Amino acid sequence: MNYTEIMVRYGELSTKGKNRQAFISRLHGNVTKALHEFPDLTIRPKRDRLHIELNGEDAKAVMARLSKVFGIQTYSPSVKVEKDMAKVHEAVLDLMNESVPQGASYKVNTRRADHTFALDTNQMNLNLGDFLVDHRPDLKVQMHHPDYTLRVEVRRDAIYLSTQTIQGALGMPVGTAGKAMLMLSGGIDSPVAGYYALKRGVDLEMVHFLSPPYTSDSALNKAKQLTTKLAPYAGYIKFIQVPFTEIQETIKSTVPEGYLMTVQRRLMLRLTEALAKQRGGLAIVNGESIGQVASQTLESMVAINDVTNMPIIRPVATMDKTEIIKVAQDIDTYDLSIMPFEDCCTIFAPPSPKTKPNLDKTRYYESKLDVEGLMQRALDGVKITEIKSSDEFMNQDQDMISELL
């Protein structure tokens, strides 16, 4: 079918009152970023809908990108027809023949924005219903819960027809909730936490700690590739790699074994907070799940969180591991996450870390470190790259993908 437009319906934006226009503008910008590879599109945001005129672009390819844009409730591929009922009948029959199988039930639902059009909504419904009774007698009219709804929109410029209503990604447009830093490891949990934060409108930047030579280029590439899996939801994501070797070596030589993980996580949190303050971040997001590992007991969280007053958002904190894995599979990060490249969280891990670290002891052991100097040298070595969701970017990194797979 030669669709001419995709009609996008907003999700929670309908509840935003005076801020509604700002949310619509943000969604418009995000859709534009997501569809930047389709130069012939025309995107027109309206108060209740966003209209994407295809102008010959591939509808399926455009909808594949739209499916990952948060803030969209549903969308429908549509056909534009002149306001000539003979042409409308022809287009309706073509559309129904292609998209509605034999024996299915249907109804006609008309919206009329152009009140100068000769037929009102009821007359249009009856006219098209009678036409389909004659030309598709195999179909059953059913007003409540039909298999398909023929949606007809009479606008000033033309009439638009559609039979599909596709579920969008829901949530809020990315960027409407401000910026946060995601502590991205190479594991299963942090990409899922990032997905949920993006869904609530949070604009994320990834913070990834690396400790060469203990962590490999493969581990770094894995983290970048995980970011490419999340990038389509945001258009692009800044990836911040933080050198952590000196800090980990210093902690290992100075801090008792049971407190290595606790003090290490405090330094990670301090560095993430420092980056957030430099870059306009308002919060920190991580993939901690209560009780899953030693550093994620409530007692450990108290000892680690002690270093910051910045809000820490833990989207997967109360989820079971099986629930987290299911989401990771849905967003296509799971297979990457389970690849066996060690990251900063696993090297130097003591055999028996404290599950209930004492806060006063933690502060004391950390006081033996030159925290300010260690942090400054790490921040001086930060590297930032921009990771996009485009196929061009993916093609450029086929060597990395091949290495991982």
UniProtKB/TrEMBL annotation:
Coiled-coil ranges (or none): none
Start and end residues of each THUMP domain: 60-165
Catalytic activity: [ThiS sulfur-carrier protein]-C-terminal Gly-Gly-AMP + S-sulfanyl-L-cysteinyl-[cysteine desulfurase] + AH2 = [ThiS sulfur-carrier protein]-C-terminal-Gly-aminoethanethioate + L-cysteinyl-[cysteine desulfurase] + A + AMP + 2 H(+); [ThiI sulfur-carrier protein]-S-sulfanyl-L-cysteine + a uridine in tRNA + 2 reduced [2Fe-2S]-[ferredoxin] + ATP + H(+) = [ThiI sulfur-carrier protein]-L-cysteine + a 4-thiouridine in tRNA + 2 oxidized [2Fe-2S]-[ferredoxin] + AMP + diphosphate
Record-linked CDD domains: PPase_ThiI, THUMP_ThiI
Keyword Repressor annotated: no
Main subcellular location: cytoplasm
A GO MF term: tRNA-uracil-4 sulfurtransferase activity
GO CC terms in record: cytosol
Pathway this chain belongs to: Cofactor biosynthesis; thiamine diphosphate biosynthesis
Alphabetized UniProt keyword annotations: ATP-binding, Cytoplasm, Nucleotide-binding, RNA-binding, Thiamine biosynthesis, Transferase, tRNA-binding
Binding site for ATP: M183, L184, H208, F209, R265, G287, Q296
Known EC number: 2.8.1.4
A biological process from GO: thiamine diphosphate biosynthetic process
Presence of the UniProt keyword Methyltransferase in the record: no
Protein localization: Cytoplasm
Role summary: Catalyzes the ATP-dependent transfer of a sulfur to tRNA to produce 4-thiouridine in position 8 of tRNAs, which functions as a near-UV photosensor. Also catalyzes the transfer of sulfur to the sulfur carrier protein ThiS, forming ThiS-thiocarboxylate. This is a step in the synthesis of thiazole, in the thiamine biosynthesis pathway. The sulfur is donated as persulfide by IscS.
NCBIfam families the record matches: tRNA uracil 4-sulfurtransferase ThiI
PANTHER family in UniProt: TRNA SULFURTRANSFERASE
Family: Belongs to the ThiI family.
Protein name according to UniProt: Probable tRNA sulfurtransferase
Species, as recorded: Lacticaseibacillus camelliae DSM 22697 = JCM 13995
Upper lineage: Bacteria, Bacillati, Bacillota, Bacilli, Lactobacillales
Gene assigned in the entry: thiI
